[in-house]
């Protein structure tokens, strides 16, 4: 962990590992056809990542092939383009969708959530007869990723926020660990948060990476400095299918 902090502090911003990335679990179990994941890093990061810790497009495709899955789309929720080139996914005939969301001090906005639900829904409709999967990632694959997946579950299944949060947490333990994200979900769907719902403790790999060797807060490098800007996409309620039986049962 100390080596990771040193590397993060001394690397140039363009080649710096995201804090906590090395020890963060690569991906979670599938939720329907959605796979929550941390950001795959392109091969230019290999010089500072041991072979056993590498997680790039190559590793993603290999892991999914071993599991008998074929990816058809990747949704990138990071607010930067420095981790990999989206063209690498397209070369593999995998659609890449960029929905930039800030990672600190804010939850994804409504427009971003609507776009996520639209993209996933349209993909599942188009792939109804061909079982392809969707890889969804932010930096670590927990808060922004979980927030978006839960929005999709809430809009396509007859379940409560509590149930949706548990579905994600079971697939990607410990689930969303930012209290404001959990509170925002209950507020959006006008549900009262039960007393039994307790925000998970921040994982050790994330707690340790938030501070540098002097105990100071690490900078947010998952941000290119500007506001998160979405490409215009027409999203309406009729675009989002409510019958998601094909999503759950494949």
Automatic annotation (TrEMBL):
All copies of domain Tyrosine specific protein phosphatases, residue ranges: 114-183
Cited CDD domains: RNA_5'-triphosphatase (cd14502)
Signal peptide boundaries: none
Any matching Pfam family: DSPc
GO MF: hydrolase activity
Name of this protein: mRNA-capping enzyme-like isoform X2
């Amino acid at each position: 962990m100390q080596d990771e902090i040193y590397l993060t502090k001394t690397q140039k911003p363009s080649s710096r590992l995201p804090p906590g990335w090395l020890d963060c679990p690569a991906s979670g179990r599938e939720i329907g056809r959605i796979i929550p994941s941390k950001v795959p890093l392109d091969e230019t990061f290999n010089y500072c990542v041991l072979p056993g810790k590498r997680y790039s497009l190559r590793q993603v495709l290999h892991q999914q092939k071993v599991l008998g899955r074929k990816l058809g789309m990747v949704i990138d929720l990071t607010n930067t383009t420095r981790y990999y080139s989206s063209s690498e996914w397209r070369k593999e005939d995998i659609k890449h969708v960029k929905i930039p969301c800030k990672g600190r001090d804010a939850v994804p906005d409504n427009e971003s959530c609507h776009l996520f639900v639209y993209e996933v829904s349209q993909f599942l409709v188009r792939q109804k007869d061909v079982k392809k999967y969707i890889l969804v990632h932010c930096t670590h694959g927990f808060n922004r990723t979980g927030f978006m997946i839960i929005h999709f579950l809430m809009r396509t299944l007859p379940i409560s926020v509590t149930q949706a949060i548990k579905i994600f947490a079971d697939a990607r333990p410990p689930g969303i660990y930012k209290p404001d994200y959990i509170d925002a979900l209950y507020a959006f769907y006008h549900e009262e948060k039960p007393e039994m719902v307790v925000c998970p403790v921040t994982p050790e790999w994330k707690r340790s990476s938030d501070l540098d060797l002097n105990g100071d807060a690490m900078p947010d490098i998952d941000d290119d400095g500007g506001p998160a800007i979405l490409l215009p996409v027409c999203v309406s309620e009729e675009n989002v299918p409510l019958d998601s039986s094909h999503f759950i049962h494949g």
